[in-house]
Design a protein that fits this description.
The longest helix is centred in the last third of the chain and has 16 residues. Helix 3 packs across helix 11. This protein is an all-alpha fold. It is 62% helix and 0% strand. The protein folds into two domains: 87 residues, Endonuclease Iii, domain 2 (Orthogonal Bundle); 99 residues, Hypothetical protein, domain 2 (Endonuclease III, domain 1).
Length: 209
């Protein structure tokens, strides 16, 4: 694996400088949002559970569910396996997401091994698990593994942030976002951080946990 890893705010600043010199709109965006969160999290089971819970619901709703579950359950494959469906439902999980977090727990992933794999291989392995699509895998790569050139093109907040930034008539779809983001290599994950901050700046709400 030979990919740039974001480990600090200095890495983000390097990406911001590169992107600002390459695209005037991005330069303006970074000036407006002022601060770009690092958003790094410890790799492992808990952060994939968090990403699954966050699928297609608001940040506030995801936070509420994760708070009810508690860090011990969120971080334990055994606790989720041993918890009943009714208990998980009372914490706010839908029937579908109950099946997803159970499938993840039962997969018993070797998370340490992911650190030595290329991003494409990690995506391939994760998306074989029920309930983990490309968005979830890319969020894990960006925030838990710090991959600098990963971009969650299916994210609605990123799409909306991009629409605002480039004065587009409609939000670009996932395919369109991948085309746009291809011009931001090798710092697509920093561009994503900037777009989430830009979305928050305009909408006055968070677009990602």
């Amino acid at each position: 694996m030979n990919e740039r890893i974001i480990t600090s705010n200095e890495c983000v600043a390097e990406g911001v400088a590169f992107l600002s010199s390459a695209d005037k709109r991005l330069k303006t965006m970074f000036k407006k949002v002022n601060s770009i969160p690092l958003r790094l999290r410890n790799p492992g089971f808990a952060n994939l559970v968090s990403a699954i819970i966050s699928q297609q619901i608001s940040v506030a709703a995801a936070d509420a569910i994760l708070k009810r579950m508690g860090p011990e359950m969120v971080g334990s494959e055994d606790k989720i396996i041993n918890c009943t469906d009714e208990e998980l439902k009372q914490m706010g999980l839908s029937r579908q997401k109950i099946s997803y977090v159970r499938s993840l727990a039962e997969a018993r992933i070797d998370y340490k091994a992911f650190e030595q794999m290329g991003s494409a291989e990690v995506i391939e392995k994760l998306t074989k698990i029920k309930g983990i699509g490309r968005w979830t895998a890319e969020i894990y790569l960006m925030f838990s593994l710090g991959r600098a050139d990963v971009f969650a093109a299916g994210d609605l907040a990123l799409q909306e942030g991009c629409r605002i930034l480039y004065d587009l008539p409609d939000r670009p779809n996932e395919k369109g976002m991948r085309e746009i983001a291809s011009h931001w290599r090798p710092w697509r994950a920093v561009a994503a951080r900037g777009l989430w901050a830009y979305y928050s700046y305009h909408k006055n709400r968070e677009g990602i946990r």
